[in-house]
Structure formats: C-alpha cells, structure tokens
Fold this protein.
Amino acid sequence: DVQLQASGGGLAQTGGSLRLSCAASGFTFDEYIIGWFRQAPGKEREAVSSIDPDDGRTVYADSVKGRFTISSDNAKNTVYLQMNSLKSEDTAVYYCNAAVRYWGQGTLVTVSS
C-alpha cells in the first residue's frame, strides 16, 4: 500500500523557519510526482509545491516562491519542504501527496507573531 508520512509541523514565529518531511513507501519513489498542499481554516486546499524525484523538476505556488524550497532524498524515499520567512498566512495543515491521488495525514503549521 502507498503510505505517505508527513512530519515537521509546529509553531513558528513570523519570519521563522520550519522543515516538513514526507516519508513515502509502497511504491517506486521516482515513479510519482510528490507534492505538498495546504488547507487553512475555512479555505480550500491549495497546492504549494511539487517535485519530480526522477529529474528534480520543481513547481511552486506564487505565494511561496523565494521562501519555500522542495527537495527529495531518493535514497531515503523522502521529500522535504524547507519553509523560510514564514508569514501568518502560511498557517495551515500541510499534506503531502503522490500522483495526485495518494494523500498522507496532515501536519499542522502555525505561524504567529
């Protein structure tokens, strides 16, 4: 079975940093594009960033460009989301996703001033 284990959420101050991890199992790691999505209270889930572990190509939402960096460690079957210069509007539950259809459990990121 495909499993995605997200971790690394927590409380950060405005301007601070957090690193999320998504550990994947149950499939060939470079077979699927891995993405991070987020859902803030009262809002729709939105795409944040994605990476193709096969060739390293990345995509970012405009709202996080220049602040967030997605990367993959293919030896560890893990995708990371380094989040810098955090803003209050980054507060959300963050989910990792594989191939659009597989979801991990969320990890809560709270940014406060």
User: Anything to note?
Assistant: Residues 79 and 94 are 13 Å apart (CA to CA). DSSP finds no helices and eleven strands in the chain. The radius of gyration is 13 Å. The longest strand covers residues 18-25.
